[in-house]
Amino acid sequence: MFRDLKIKQRISRQAMARRGFTLIEILIVVTILGILATIVIPQFSNASMTARENMLKDELRYLRTQIIVYKAQHHDVAPGYPGADTTQAVSEADLVDQMTKHTDEHSVVSASPSTVFKFGPYLSAIPQNPMNGLSAVQIIADTDPWPTADGKIYGWFYRPMSGDLMANSEGADVQGNPFTTY
């Protein structure tokens, strides 16, 4: 009986010793997890960049479409010209007002719709550039060259006479296309 008790105690100690993992087993698991992380994490960060690129393309497409609609309803005058006078200087404030409020056929702005102010709003707000998080628009004169994209201060560059719009985003997408060519 004493001998049976010793055997049971020995088996019990061995069973308790085997309940945990050995150092080698833990190191193998950590190494495998590390290898998996190095494979999976870059794919997620690449997916995030691709999503921002696609969002930039969509924002540009939408803004350009709304500028075309505005021009079609305002005698081929692009938004930004005060009172549809193309001899006046274009300002960001006029552009934002004309795109986000109601206008008449001569680009005069009103906060509420009426039989006279029957056009718009074309946008609820100027969207943010998904690459730099900025929504401000820099107005570019028709005779000036496009500025170099720096991703600072402005989200968009806008040339009113032609209605051209460009993202102020330095760098390129995953295929190597500069964001300014979108």
* Class from helix and strand fractions: mainly alpha
Kindly report how far apart the N and C termini lie: 87 Å
Biggest β-sheet description? 3 strands, mixed
Evaluate the radius of gyration.
31 Å
* Strand percentage: 5-15%
SSE string: HHHEEEEE
- Which overall shape is indicated by the principal axes computed on the Cα atoms? elongated
Mean pLDDT: 88
Residue ranges: pLDDT <50 for 5 or more in a row?
none
E-strand count:
5
- What is the helix tally? 3
Strand order of the largest sheet: 3-4-5
Q: State the oligomer.
A: single chain
Helix content class: 40-55%
Describe the structure.
This protein has three helices and five strands; from the N terminus they run H-H-H-E-E-E-E-E. It has about 180 residues and is mostly helical. It has a three-stranded mixed beta sheet with strand order 3-4-5, covered by helices on one side. A hairpin with a 5-residue loop joins strand 1 and strand 2. The longest helix is centred in the first third of the chain and has 51 residues. The chain is elongated. The termini are far apart. The model has no long low-confidence stretch (mean pLDDT about 90).
Nutshell version of this structure?
With 182 residues, this protein is mostly helical. The chain has helices spanning 2-17, 23-73, 92-100; strands spanning 102-103, 109-110, 137-139, 156-159, 164-167.
